[in-house]
Amino acid sequence: MATLTNTTAALKTTVAANNNSFSINKLTAWADKQAPNRTMWFMVSLIAQGVLFLPVPAVLLYYFDAPLAVLAVTLGLFFSNIIAGMGGASIRTLLALFAVSILAHLTMVVLFAL
Question: How wide is the angle at C-alpha 33 spanned by C-alphas 94 and 24, nearest 5°?
Answer without folding.
Answer: 75
